[in-house]
Amino acid sequence: MSHPMLHAARDAVLQPPAVPPETWQATAAAPGGAQSAPRPSAANRTAPVQTEGCAAVEASLTAEGVVAGAGIAGIAGAAGPARRGPPDPLAADGSRAALPDIDAPERRTVLHVDIDAFFAAIEQRRDPRLQGRPVIVGAGVIASCSYEARAFGLRAGMPLSEARRLCPQAVILDGHAQVYRCFAEEIFARCRAIAPEVEAYLDEAYCDLSGTERLHGGLIEKVRELKLGILEATGLSVTCGIGPNRMLAKLIGKTVKPDGLARIGAAEADAFLRDRPIEQLAGVGHAHAKTLRSMNLRTIGELRALSAEVLVALFGANGRLLYERCCGRDTAAVDEREIPRSISRETSFHRDTADPAEIDGMLEYLVGRACRTARELGIKPRTVAVRLRYSDGEGCERARGLGQPSDADPVVLALALDLLRRQFTRRVALHHLGVTLSSFVRCEGEQGALFDEPEAGRRAALFRAFDGVRRAYGHGVLVSGRALQLRGRLEEDRHGFVLRTPSLTK
Amino acid sequence: MRREAIDEAVAVRADFHGGTVKPVAFRRRGREHRVVRVNAHWVDRSGRHPRFYFSVTAEDGDIYQLQLHAGDLVWWLDSVTLEG
Q1: Range B19-49 burial, b when 16+ CB lie within 10 A, else e
Q2: Where on the phi/psi map is residue A175: left (φ > 0), alpha (ψ -120 to 50), or beta?
Q3: pLDDT tens, position by position, A308-320
Q4: Which of A134, A484, B28, B59 matches a 20 to 30 Å C-alpha distance to A398?
């Protein structure tokens, strides 16, 4: 290892920790960990919390953010952005009133809901003959696998060829993305009933429960009710983690999968994180983990010995986040994301192809899906990117800005086709194709061009009409231009063509 | 497992009770298939009218997917999943 920064980092391991001493004093004073949480006492008004699942975690119930969480409150407060909330009430004498500041970062309560083995569990529900059997959902690679399959060492992302070798008796299914979306919506609707802010992904959601303690009474009991409601409505089990921030909520949930429920307070964060493998820290992927392990850093606790500056030098802006996270701090808010960062539609071909008609048709179809989503959200992209991967594994991606933000299929498609032509230069079949829209502006906030295209208004009305028809009768009822080339090559349902990558067949 | 698309409108006998619907039997090609178990149900709300889906086990042991379109209240037999 010759990188000078790595030498500096190694040296830093031997140096005293470069964090404010009060942090270390506080974290050192923080008692116990997930397995040895502080005993409740009348003095700090804590109460034992029952947890479900594999691990029994005992955490402070009422005082975790106030008493126990005070250990890192100063640091977290300094790092955390001010969040929404009522104005600070002042007492008659000008001093702060006694009302608690429920939006202070140290008082946050985040619930992480993770659907257990999502796709595979739904397939097992739909067909009881699959229950108890190893089930894989995916094409090319595993998108999801049942817990029975995981016992054979199968994991999401593993190539199907390897999965077949490890578990020949596994049942492999293509997947039904539209069905999974319906189940997910049902589950997340139930989350929205108890949390004012829910940030939902495909199979997990973060719920901001800050300030809802008085409304819900016991949070643990409320979350238990949520789990039961989801199980009764969908037959699916979820794992729930409650913590003072997103990262801790997710991590504590991981310890009680599947069908578990656990809570961690800020005071337990230090001991809980200290001995966990470095890979479990959010933001540490394969590459980062390899770098850190080469420096003999194997646990999150060992990572704390590196200063923020060293981590920034090693990993760029992500290093600052790692520094905060390894100390148990995560100030990222739960965000409903009304405007997404990007809208991406991509898929693998059922059979690798070099046929220009099929490739152009697929690109037009993907652009149509992405643009329709943008129109439904009332946003227009400024940037279009096209990503492709050849059958030999080599891939490339190129992005370019539109002259004027646009959500019209022909405008975006013209640029996407140009990007495709510039990248698809090898005489090798394509395996994968995708389009990504980004840098969005709100439609009402957009400043139009001085000399608008004369047909722009009519075209917008046309696509609004298309969207109305598709909303009523399904996306597949209208197929445009080059996408007609996909007819006969791909299966269709009312939602459009059935793409190979199930999670992306939106 | 082998899934075969059917996509046929079928006559279904169902229980509507307490705001929920549960298919009891369906008739296809002159033959009545009794539903012995509703394995899963879900709702697709992406269109103008919701569509209610049911995965059911018939008495012959096969798994069928039924769909009730709330717009015209027509039942559809979407598919059958066969062992093997």
Answers
A1: eebebebbebeeeebebeeebbbbebebbee
A2: left
A3: 888 888 888 888 8
A4: A484
Whether chain A has a CB inside 8 Å of the CB on B83: the answer is yes
Is residue B57 left, alpha or beta, with left meaning phi > 0 and alpha meaning psi from -120 to 50? beta
Give the CA diameter of chain B. Answer: 38
CATH number of A109-243: 3.40.1170.60
Give the global pTM. Answer: 0.70
CA distance B28 to chain A (A): 21
Domain limits, chain A: 1-59+264-337, 109-243, 343-504
**What is the rounded end-to-end Cα distance, in angstroms, of chain A?**
45
| Highest CATH level, class, for A1-59+264-337 | mainly alpha
Amino acid at A171: V
Sign of the dihedral through C-alpha A290, A291, A297, A302: negative
A474: nearest CA in chain B? B47
Based on the structure, what is the number of domains in chain B?
Answer: 1
> Which residue from A minimizes the CA distance to B56?
A126
Separation in Å, CA of B40 to nearest CA in chain A: 5
Per-residue pLDDT at A284 exceeds 50: yes
